[in-house]
Amino acid sequence: MTARSLTQRLKDAAVFSYPEASRLLQTPREFPSDPSTIRSFSIDTRNLAAGDLFVALKGEHSDGHQFLKTAFEKGASGALIDARQKVSVLADADKGGWKVRNLLAVSDPQQAMTALAADYRRSLSVKIVGITGSVGKTTTKEFLYYLLRQQFAVLATSGNLNNHLGVPMMLSRLEPAHKFCVLEMGASHPGEIRYLAGLAGPAGGILTPIGPAHLEGFGTLENVYRTKLELAEGLEKNGPLVVSADDPHLLELIGQRKMHPVCVGASEQAEYRISEVSAEKGTVNFTLNGRWKFSFPGQASFLALNAGLAIAMARSLGMPWEALPQKWQDVGFASGRFRETILPNGVRVIDDSYNANPVSFENALKAFHSLPRTGQKIIVFADMLEMGAEEDRFHRELGEKMARTDADLALAFGKRTRASIEAVLNAKTGCVAKHFDDAAALELFLKDILKPGDAVLFKGSRGMHVEKVLAGVTAMTFKG
């Protein structure tokens, strides 16, 4: 597949021309139809919008070619399909009586989508900031998005579109009016960040805290560090790299590469020094460089670092101190990231169920420990997945850390958390620890012991679906 430039781009909207996409991909546009433009890419008919190009990908559990009828019924302007399935697709359309339009048949739909996204990105002058790390990517993205949009038109990663499929889709949503784009970049194997950075062409980058995560794919923590640093290697010349000043190993690796990062943290040597961090009455407060005071909603004081990283990048991109709001009341927080809610039944829940690794779990435990007590404090958790050969050690250490908090109960499901529960019990600190066969059994136990005023922390890897227990707790009612 060649990468001829898409010419005659429409200047007032973020669209591709189907005729030009056809020329780039060197494949004919079949069943040409209006509109002859592409609004953006979609690989899932559940969130497809009218005007999108539907990219039919074959995954482990489903094949996008089976959803073409739905895609066109929902208003897809065209479809990118595997050429080997064209005959069966047209036969299905003829048999089912539905119309195909703007069909592009290629040898590899994923590769074709990426080529279109890369070419479109090169046609725009937008400055892209890439964010990677082991914990806090989404929150840092939300903080930076909030700050930049005070003055500029900004696009930011939506949902979990941070991988080899999500980044091309995000690039397709860019508009000529966008001044900045903030992209999360996730990885579970070496080389993946280098690939995404090569696709996006970031002007700047942020490395959030790095720790043991996805070790099944990376093998070692050192490989995690080196993979995250692939973002630094992909920055445009003299592009700012914002990192934590409190990670000596990261700074050592950066120094070996002769790079000069912008450092943020508690260290006296940090260019952006964080101090006076507190969490009280639903607000986190912190000070930068002894002068500039900021606050954001929540009780997760550990997120002050992420906020500092975002401020440092905003400043590196040209925002003056005076343009940065002090109180971030309307900053967005994604679900499952230490989001605190008092339910109608009176139970106080802290939803940190989006994902889990040793670093993020330790941060959550410290913040939960600092919460004022009004009733029982309960930790509901499940396995940390993809932890590799040392998963047992990581889970035992997790239990030891739980035992040092003021939690009254530690309740878990998942085979790996048996080691955590054993560690809590062995510590003999008075914390009641129980392991359950599944989430349903744990939920039944909670129904018997929960009372209004209790605080419950929910934490676990995404694949464990701890949020299902949270949903059950949300639906509970208690007798007066």
SSE topology:
Blueprint: E1 16-17, H1 18-25, E2 29-30, E3 37-38, E4 41-42, E5 53-55, H2 68-73, E6 78-82, H3 86-96, E7 103-106, H4 109-122, E8 127-132, H5 137-148, E9 154-156, H6 166-172, E10 180-184, H7 192-200, E11 204-207, H8 215-218, H9 221-228, H10 230-233, E12 241-244, H11 248-256, E13 262-265, E14 272-280, E15 283-288, E16 292-297, H12 304-316, E17 339-342, E18 348-352, H13 358-370, E19 377-381, H14 391-403, E20 409-413, H15 417-427, E21 432-436, H16 439-449, E22 455-459, H17 467-474
Parallel strand pairs: 4-5, 5-6, 6-7, 8-10, 8-11, 9-10, 11-12, 12-13, 13-14, 18-22, 19-20, 19-22, 20-21
Antiparallel strand pairs: 1-3, 2-7, 14-15, 15-16, 17-18
Helix pairs in contact: 4-6, 5-12, 13-14, 14-15, 16-17
Describe the structure.
This protein is of the alpha/beta class. It has 3 domains: 16-115, MurE/MurF, N-terminal domain (Udp-n-acetylmuramoylalanyl-d-glutamate--2,6- Diaminopimelate Ligase, Chain: A, domain 1), CATH 3.40.1390.10; 124-323, UDP-N-acetylmuramoyl-L-alanine:D-glutamate ligase, CATH 3.40.1190.10; 339-474, Mur ligase, C-terminal domain (Protein-Tyrosine Phosphatase, Chain A), CATH 3.90.190.20. 34% of the residues lie in helices and 20% in strands. The strands form 4 sheets. The protein has a 9-stranded mixed sheet, with helices on both faces. It has a 6-stranded mixed sheet with strand order 17-18-22-19-20-21, sandwiched between helices. Strands 2-7-6-5-4 form a 5-stranded mixed sheet. The longest helix is centred in the N-terminal third of the chain and has 14 residues, at 109-122. The termini are far apart. 48% of the residues are buried.
